[in-house]
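Hello Y.,

Per our agreement to keep a running log of every chain we model this quarter, I'm adding this entry. I've kept the format consistent with earlier entries: sequence first, then predicted structure.
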Amino acid sequence: MKTIAETGAFLNAPHMSTPSLSFEGVGLTYKDGTETLRDINLKVERDEFVSVVGPSGCGKSTLLKVASGLVEATQGNVVADRDRLGYVFQDATLLPWRTVASNVGLLAELHGVAKQERERRVQEAIELVGLSGFADRHPRRLSGGMRMRASLARSLTMDPEVFLFDEPFGALDEITRERLNDELVQLFLARHFAGLFVTHSIYEAVYLSTRVVVMSPRPGRIVAEFSIPFSYPRGPEVRFSPEFAQIASNISSALRGTELE
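Predicted structure for the entry above:
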């Protein structure tokens, strides 16, 4: 097990003694002097689903890249287990020449998982995301929602402890988006991962999350945090409750406050 290193270090996290994902005083300044993130302190435990909202360009997606190691922080430390980290991007990023099953199994294949075990994981993940019967189809024959389900399934084959989501449903129509929100809640309950979800939708954030954090304009800082009191599983009717509307209004007010900074 690695020890905490100097500025910008990344650790493999022991399961019992640390959160599944932790940002400790994290900042990011590019070589051209652009400061993108400043003093990010955030912990996400297993069985927590934390959504991040903020104005465009505030560093929300960059925060996920720092968590995954795609971008290295220039200040502070990130604690997580990279070997058990799932990442779902805004685009499904499926290979058009591969079938659904072959796309879903790609990460396990790249990690050297034996064929028999890989096939078992692929079948389980496909069933979990509701794509049974579509394993032999190519991406061009799938709807946008189905392609995103395949992308989710691909990460599920690695049994992630930490799951990063970069606006995965932003390009979908509202009905499909709400359906996938419901399905993601079920996945969260089934797999008990630590989720960090970036979205521009306050309503999506409130519906999915145990907590919602608000980021300021660049350089992105966490300026507000809201606990979401609704228990899981959550039915669609929670979206129409007065409590839901009040929390969404409070988050919206916090977002508007960032525009005045």
